[in-house]
Design goal:
Elements (H helix, E strand, L loop, with lengths): L10 E7 L2 E6 L10 H15 L6 E6 L21 H19 L5 E5 L2 E3 L1 H8 L2 E4 L4 E3 L14 H9 L1 H10 L2 E3 H7 L4 E2 L3 H13 L3 H13 L6 H15 L4 H11 L9
Parallel strand pairs: 2-3, 3-4, 4-6, 5-7, 6-9
Antiparallel strand pairs: 1-2, 7-8
Length: 268
């Protein structure tokens, strides 16, 4: 993959197994806090990875002790002085990065290896799946610094993951949610001693399946969170299935089943 050969200032990008790319936020001295440079690089990375035909899964984690501590408060002093439109531009810069990552055609797994706070919490929520280490902590810290938890998608994603009452508690109190409680809430899929290793194991299971099937499954799951009705959701599902029966992977899966052998998917 050409993308993994690029050098980013705030991230390390590596193809750890065929089709599986590991992205590591790489500001460990600042607990991988977000900067405008990181936002630009995240957006660029998402676009670059989208051009990689062999891409199957992306894993996102943090270097050192944290996943991501949110916006770097060392850069926050100027925020109150930006003016309304200047602050809106700042917000939209951050949002574009998270929307680009969430919108990648392949599954995004967050391997939460430590604290995911503020914007880092939003980043974890933007993933399709979350795998956490026992020391992971989730912190909707916005109200602690005079801001709203309606930030970078939290107010839309969190209630859908854990329900409105629990989401309200987490956002209004600004308290930490540990890994085990996050599993209980449904915020995290699995807790494992090594979050990246756990995410990689899950990624390998995904890679064994039809690439087109996985990608259109992601599209249907995300789009139908916003569908206006059951009928609209069914219509989208029908279109996906009709498209996939025109690919080479479904006939290959049927042939492999009859021959009692593993399928060899081509993704076309």
């Amino acid at each position: 993959m050409q993308t993994v050969k690029k050098t980013f200032e705030t991230m390390l990008v590596e193809e750890v197994k065929p089709g599986i790319v590991l992205v590591t936020l790489n500001r460990p001295d600042r607990y991988n806090a977000m900067t405008n440079t990181m936002f630009r690089e995240m957006e660029q990375l998402a676009w670059d990875l989208g051009a990689e035909d062999d891409l199957r899964v992306v894993i996102l984690t943090g270097a050192g002790k944290a996943f991501c501590s949110g916006y770097d408060l060392a850069d926050a002093d100027d925020l109150p002085h930006l003016g309304a439109l200047g602050m809106l531009d700042q917000q939209e810069r951050a949002v574009r990065a998270l929307v680009a990552l969430r919108g990648m055609r392949v599954p995004l797994i967050a391997a939460v290896n430590g604290a995911a706070a503020g914007g880092g919490f939003s980043l974890a929520l933007a993933a399709d799946v979350r795998v956490a280490s026992p020391g992971a902590k989730f912190h909707a810290a916005f109200v602690k610094i005079g801001l709203s938890a309606g930030d970078l998608g939290v107010s839309w994603l969190l209630p859908r993951l854990i329900g409105p009452a629990r989401a309200s508690e987490v956002c209004f109190t600004g308290r930490m949610v540990g890994a085990e409680e996050a599993v209980e809430f449904g915020l995290v899929n699995h807790v494992t001693d090594d979050a990246v290793a756990g995410a990689l194991e899950l990624a390998e299971q995904i890679v064994s399946n039809s690439p087109g099937g996985v990608q259109l499954s992601k599209r249907a799951l995300q789009a139908n969170l916003e569908a206006s009705s059951y009928a609209a959701a069914i219509e989208l599902e029908n279109r996906g299935q009709a498209l996939l029966t025109r690919s080479s992977d479904m006939p290959e899966a049927l042939a492999a089943f009859k021959a009692k052998r593993p399928p060899v998917f081509q993704g076309n």
